[in-house]
Design a protein that fits this description.
seven-stranded parallel sheet; mainly beta
């Protein structure tokens, strides 16, 4: 068990980090201990911590963890470009991907068939300055936020631009997108959210 790919930096690190191009990341289970936790595991496929980096044309498929079944990006600045995040699962939040703080960006990515027991079948965003550009969320499942769930706070902002969020399922609320009540720190631009 453990993350298939792990990128660890340090707070304030400005190293541009690695670029992974054309890889398939599959079969990761459990993930890596998150931050200073001794009991919480994240990123079955990919785990980053205080890291920079880029993943291009990668497939993140059939991974699992407590949080961020496919990927868990903790306090990082990682760019995902034209990646497929498919059929991953989380025992808690972020079936396909979880952003935790940081300023991550996904462009042209497909999130399909991921599931989370609690929040964010495709993506669970926690207090980040993340961006989703021209991404597709389809066929993802969770209790809250089948496609995307956002656990925001005053200083966070998730920008969703040119995305299609359709055909996602939910057991409780927010089949397409669920946003933490009392917080509206999500910006939608030219995106479609329907048929969820």
């Amino acid at each position: 068990p453990g993350s298939v790919v792990t990128m660890i930096g340090s707070e304030g690190d400005t190293d541009p980090g690695p670029t992974l191009r054309g890889f398939t990341v599959t079969g990761g289970t459990l993930g890596t201990l998150i931050g200073t936790s001794t009991t919480l595991f994240g990123g079955g496929g990919v785990y980053t911590e205080w890291s920079h980096g880029r993943m291009e044309s990668c497939r993140i498929v059939d991974n699992s963890a407590n949080f961020g079944g496919g990927l868990y990006l903790w306090q990082s600045e990682v760019e995902l470009l034209d990646c497929e995040i498919v059929s991953n699962n989380a025992a808690a939040d972020g079936g396909g991907l979880q952003f935790f703080r940081g300023a991550n960006r996904a462009t042209g990515c497909l999130f399909e068939g991921n599931d989370a027991i609690a929040r964010g079948g495709g993506l669970h965003d926690v207090r980040s300055l993340g961006e989703l550009v021209d991404c597709t969320f389809v066929g993802n499942l969770a209790d809250l936020g089948g496609g995307i769930s956002v656990f925001a706070e005053a200083e966070s902002l998730l920008t969703i631009s040119g995305c299609s969020i359709t055909g996602n399922l939910v057991k409780v609320l927010g089949a397409g997108v669920w946003i933490r009540p009392g917080f509206d720190d999500v910006a939608f631009e030219n995106s479609v959210v329907c048929g969820n």
